[in-house]
Design goal:
The structure is a single chain. The chain is an alpha/beta fold. Helices cover 47% and strands 12% of the residues. The protein contains 17 helices and 12 strands. Strands 1-12-11-7-10 form a 5-stranded mixed β-sheet, with helices on both faces. Strands 3-2-4-5-6 form a 5-stranded parallel β-sheet, sandwiched between helices. The protein binds 5-phosphoarabinonic acid. The site of 5-phosphoarabinonic acid has 15 residues, from loops. 5-phosphoarabinonic acid binds next to loops.
Length: 468
């Protein structure tokens, strides 16, 4: 196991317990009080049990994904040689992690540099966007990575059908070369078809759910294609794995985070968490976190079947951009948010030169760095939010590097699992998402769903229309 001269990630909890005049809005110190430590120990035990039974196989990925990483690197070599464009098609957990990793580690304008292949993640089924993609990425020169754990998600399967048609039209019998598949090893129509057509296929282990799958080929293949060190990403996750399963909550960063977030909800009525990186390259991490937290923690029933309507809403914001959009609300609006600042040293600095000769008012900017300005603004916003009596924490990554990204992703996965146990919910299902999928299929005429379609149409017809 790799040792790091500098930790890939640290978390500063100072402003969670010290905000505001006379501590108003603070979490009562200590964060790990006796009661919460007891609860965390139970949550850890619950998750140790699920690790033991293999129910949360994502927890083993830092080690178990080595073979997936090897295969991803092999596939990536061919893809890098043969194609000008790489398009990942998937939605939710099959897209957000890949996008977050590509942006966090890659060049901010990678597709406009000479880097080949150019990287795209096409998650939404917006026809204008898809037509636009075909305009800029000729299917003849494009490799498509189709990602769907279930192998039946309508958005992704519709994209596959369209792409298949386009590739066949462009290259005829050579179409197979343009497709790579990531799906469940056994179930789903996609897996069956991939076997029949002998397509290069990677697997998401059966007990790894979509939003916990970033450390499989869902995230590793695009990262390898973009030339990133996927082994370093797993090393960062391994580093975090040791810490996040530590049985002593005091030494476990995921336990600290889960304690804070659950206590903020229960004791301060904080129902929103704002993830606010001060780095444009880390902005997409907020998208990944939103899905992970929202789908895992937003639940109607607890594990005993009791209706509880539990959940806190994850929000993403970007520093400094949202200082000129959202921060007014965060500082002076309702005390219903906890801010999770994220920062990382920048790869380079841009010096601010002398600006307006003879002007004194703005001369204070001159000679400083752009990154220095941004991080000073972060310190200023941390302080403004604390002084207004609202809790925040700051996560510091060691850089925009794969190790730190691997550690960050794994940290939040375990935090989410522990919070799920503390709320006594199943953090790994998403029944609220399934309902929408069923309605869509029925309305589009899926065979066998005629009765459902009828019932839905009757229900819609009975609504009193209000169109203004
Ligand atoms: O976390 C989940 O399981 C979901 O959000 C899925 O990622 C999303 O619905 C896509 O599913 P699939 O990968 O099966 O296409």
């Amino acid at each position: 196991m790799k040792t790091f001269s500098k930790p890939p990630l640290t978390i500063d909890f100072t402003n969670a317990i010290n905000p505001g005049p006379a501590g108003a809005g603070a979490i009562a110190a200590p964060i790990l009080n006796e009661a919460i430590v007891k609860e965390l120990k139970l949550a850890l035990a619950d998750n140790y049990r699920m690790r033991e039974t293999g129910e949360i196989a994502w927890a083993e990925l830092p080690h178990e994904a080595q073979a997936i990483a090897d295969q991803s690197v092999v596939f990536a070599k061919t893809i890098r040689n043969d194609f000008e464009n790489f398009v990942q098609m998937g939605i939710g957990g099959s897209a957000l992690g890949a996008q977050a990793v590509l942006e966090a580690v890659g060049h901010p304008y990678a597709n406009l540099t000479n880097q080949r292949p150019r990287m795209f993640v096409a998650d939404n089924i917006d026809p204008d966007q898809l037509n636009g993609l075909f305009d800029v990425a000729d299917p003849k020169k494009t490799c498509y990575h189709i990602v769907t754990k279930s192998g039946s998600t309508p958005e992704t399967m519709a994209q596959l059908f369209i792409v298949l048609d386009r590739i066949k039209a462009a290259v005829g019998d050579n179409w197979r070369k343009h497709l790579y598949i990531t799906t469940d090893p056994k179930v789903g129509a996609l897996k069956k078809w991939a076997v029949e057509e002998n397509l290069p296929t990677l697997h998401i282990p059966p007990k790894v759910g979509g939003r916990f799958s970033v450390l499989t080929s869902v995230g590793l293949l695009p990262a390898a294609v973009a030339g990133m060190d996927v082994y370093a990403m797993l090393e960062g996750a391994k580093w975090m794995q040791i810490r996040c399963w530590h049985e002593n909550p005091e030494q476990n960063p995921a336990a600290w985070l889960a304690a804070l977030l659950v206590r903020a909800d229960r004791e301060l009525g904080i129902k929103m968490f704002v993830m606010m990186p001060y780095s444009s390259r880390l902005y997409r991490m907020g998208d990944w976190f939103r899905q992970l937290w929202a789908e895992s923690i937003g639940k109607r029933y607890d594990r005993d079947g009791k209706e509880i309507f539990v959940g806190t809403t994850p929000i993403k914001a970007l520093g400094a951009t949202d200082q000129h959009s959202q921060v007014q609300l965060y500082v002076e609006g309702p005390k219903d948010k906890l801010t999770i600042f994220v920062e990382a040293p920048f790869d380079g600095e841009v010096k601010i030169p002398i600006g307006l000769p003879g002007d004194k008012a703005l001369a204070y900017l001159e000679g400083h760095g752009m990154g220095e300005l941004l991080l000073t603004e972060l310190r200023a916003t941390e302080r403004a939010i604390a002084k207004a009596g609202r809790p925040s924490i700051t996560i510091k990554l060691s850089g925009h590097n794969p190790e730190a990204v691997g550690a960050f992703l794994y940290l939040w996965e375990v935090t989410t699992a522990l919070a799920g146990s503390m709320y006594n919910i199943n953090a790994f299902d998403q029944p609220g998402v399934e309902a929408g999928k069923i309605t869509t299929a029925a309305l589009l005429g899926k065979p066998g769903m005629e009765a459902e379609a009828d019932a839905i149409n009757k229900e819609l017809a009975a609504f009193k229309k209000i169109v203004v």
